[in-house]
């Protein structure tokens, strides 16, 4: 199994490097955690530029506090609902507190990632009419609440972490990574940071997402995420609006791919939609070839007309073999590295 463009990820698996969130937890920042929000953002920006300072606050604590403030009138994703979620006011995604619908050792992800300790959250920031996970993405009140400390302990067990320093792991049985997904993990950013503050396992963090986060949330993920496993769906805003109700899709998702790749490793998934090879697959793959040529791409054929897809004639059928061959041909012509 080759490391491809995931060299640092493999170094963590081999014990030669540390998961980013552990280093972030050790970095100290000289700031009063109760300071005004602008001051905290300034301290956060400064801390990203310098190695480490003296201070009473650790960088992960600072990120968590900033996430709490972003969450208080929610601007975690680009919908920027400003919903007071902690007071019971639901925003567009409907997510109040983080609810886990399932967590298990996933063996069906890309070979670089499995076995992957995958945590599925209820709710999503998108409304894809063909959602393949609609039972959980459209039901933000489903699932169960797992306190951050308990989730951290579950991660440590899955990673095979020891007590003590928590950095040793049993690579023969443990998960290779924690894979935060949903729905979408974005609505649960605060919970994920709270969990990692309690966690000690040297295990890479995979952010499995539609990449519709606000720029502030992307900044908070710097030093936390090891691998972005992204879902780049559409090549134009009209398809994104009609099929996922995701305004300004291309600008936001392209920006976040560039921000994410600047501070972490990445693998991009593209689910080929029936009838959307020219309007979506070709422009998405062309953008990747122009901007993120070193990133592995998984061109996926497993579309099924789920959820409300039957009401949309263009996507009310399975993908034809010829459409998938066309998609792969485009990727090969562009010289993209395809995931196994
Ligand atoms: S995560 Fe996004 S959709 Fe959900 S409440 Fe916050 S801003 Fe709204």
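Sequence proposed for the structure above (340 residues):
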């Amino acid at each position: 199994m080759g490391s491809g463009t995931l060299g640092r990820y493999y170094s963590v698996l081999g014990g030669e490097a540390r998961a980013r969130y552990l280093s972030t937890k050790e970095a100290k920042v000289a700031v009063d955690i109760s300071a005004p929000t602008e001051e905290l953002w300034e301290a956060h920006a400064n801390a990203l530029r310098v190695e480490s300072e003296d201070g009473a606050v650790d960088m992960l604590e600072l990120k968590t506090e900033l996430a709490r403030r972003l969450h208080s009138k929610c601007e975690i994703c680009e919908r920027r609902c400003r919903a007071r979620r902690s007071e019971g006011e639901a925003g567009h995604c409907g997510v109040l507190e983080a609810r886990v619908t399932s967590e298990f050792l996933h063996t069906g992800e890309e070979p670089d990632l499995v076995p992957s300790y995958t945590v599925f959250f209820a709710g999503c920031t998108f409304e894809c009419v063909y959602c393949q996970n609609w039972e959980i993405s459209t039901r933000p009140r489903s699932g169960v609440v797992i306190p951050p400390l308990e989730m951290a302990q579950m991660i440590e067990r899955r990673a095979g972490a020891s007590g003590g320093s928590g950095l040793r792991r049993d690579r023969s049985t443990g998960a290779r990574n924690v894979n935060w997904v949903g729905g979408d993990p974005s609505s649960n950013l605060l919970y994920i940071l709270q969990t990692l503050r309690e966690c000690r396992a040297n295990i890479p963090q995979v952010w499995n997402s539609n990449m519709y986060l606000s720029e502030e949330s992307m900044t908070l993920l710097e030093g936390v995420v090891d691998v972005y496993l992204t879902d780049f769906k559409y090549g134009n805003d009209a398809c994104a609006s009609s099929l996922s109700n995701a305004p300004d899709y291309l600008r936001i998702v392209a920006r976040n791919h560039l921000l994410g790749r600047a501070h972490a490793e990445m693998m991009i998934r593209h689910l080929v939609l029936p009838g959307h090879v020219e309007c979506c697959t070709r422009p998405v793959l062309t953008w990747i070839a122009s901007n993120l040529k070193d990133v592995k791409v998984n061109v996926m054929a497993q579309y099924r007309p789920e959820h409300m897809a039957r009401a949309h004639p263009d996507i009310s059928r399975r993908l034809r073999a010829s459409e998938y061959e066309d998609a792969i041909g485009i990727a090969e012509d562009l010289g993209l590295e395809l995931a196994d």
